[in-house]
Predict the structure.
Amino acid sequence: MTHPAPYDADPGQQRDELHAERYRAVASRDARFDGQFVTAVHSTGIYCRPSCPARTPRTEGVTFYRTSAAAHLAGFRACKRCLPEATPGSPEWDLREDVAGRAVRLVLDGVVEREGVPGLAARVGYSERQLNRIMTEELGAGPKALSRAHRAQTARTLLTSSDLPVADVAFAAGFASVRQFNDTVREVFALTPTELRARRAPGPGLRPADDGWLHVHLPARAPFDLQGLLDWHALHALPRLEHVERDGTGRVTAYGRLLTLPGGPARFTASAPVPGTAGSGAGRAGVALRVRLTSLSDLPTLVARVRALFDLDADPEAVDAVLAADPLLAPAVARVPGIRLPGAVDAHEVVFRTLIGQQVSVAAARTAQTRLVAALGEPVDPALAADGLLFPTAATIAARGHEVLRGPAARVDTILRVAGMLADGSLVVDAGQSLADLRAGLLAVKGIGPWTADYVALRVRHHPDVFLHSDLAVRNGAQELGLPGGARELSLRSEQTAPWRSYLTMHCWRPIVDRASAAAEAAAATTTHQEDER
């Protein structure tokens, strides 16, 4: 049997250097590399995360694989001690612009489960045979194997963090049958699903029947600025579509929203892990997620989109090291370590909200967007969210947007034009595109300029190296940090922080978000005090 090419299967000196680099990470049990590669131990037949606490094997006794799927195909099983599937994903997929990177992003979004390998190949513009060859050469596993590994990871998460019946876990993880689920779990983890569930941390499980939610912990690499993302999303939240929870001081403690998934509407709420709450991941960096779904099979897609929304796969130490090398940015990085990018759960929604929000304040944009949702949003089952509305589809906006949209005629025309193009497929905007293709497609539309294309790329493509140098708020924030305020000078200065310029954008926005959040907290605290007095 011919095994897939391992991660260190590059020729000559480069191969030896890659192997030595990864072996040093394993020898030091460096958790920063968890999720970026796995270590397959020849003597035991298992693969581990780099930070596994087990005794470090000899350097000649290990092979490093870029993906767990490649390790599966080579005949290795997952370590029962370090649980290599319970790690953040690799930040590599947000950086890579090649076919393999684009395909992985689509696999994580569930395209293989919904459309099969032919659908995935069509999306990236290659034949099935070409795509299989490229992904096997680059990653050690083809689309089917990667999708299978992703399903196994979702299954492990559900088995250990929820009390869903095992049969429900099978379908929620995307398996076509319980038998397929049982076989895959046994093969990957060398345990039956029941045995895997029995190995979870002691304590009562979180039963969906208790509060109507399914609870899942999504890990992230530390440091993780969750509060900054909660504040950012709260600042832009639209009534009836999104919801924000605050504590008695007005601080944002949770953000959630409705969204449309392939199986129907869904709702989630994201917050910090709560100490003492079983299955929430308390004490670990990440997000405690509460979920309600129309179809359990949508869970992997929802998890992938929430991971992107909260930038959970980022490598914060790598980002912070580059940004902090600039003396003017070092204080900001020290003040907010682990800053993250706000991603997207619905690419088309981001496009429309961006177009509506051009050249107006956040408050004015939110007012116009709220009016659009109220007029054209589709109601959901009250059991999912009382009085909740989904963001209107491109087809709905194309047909009825003229009834609701206000502002300059040229902007309204652009929005309606974009809606029609998204609806008929002549304009494609999704996370599977390369940065160049996404920007080119948007810029080809009359009325869309570079700022809009770049902002959509930062949110939808979740690209880590986009700097919005022409954004007035970014320039004002940059001046507060001591950076140049002119667009050209700021753009040149930002090149020092490549390939993490999107995170520089977030640091420049941060003073504005902090002031808005402080004002919202003060208003919420005042309202609470007045209610208490009454």
About this structure: The two ends are 76 Å apart (CA to CA). The chain has four domains: 12-78, 92-198, 208-296, 347-515. Confidence is low (pLDDT under 50) at residues 1-5, 203-209.
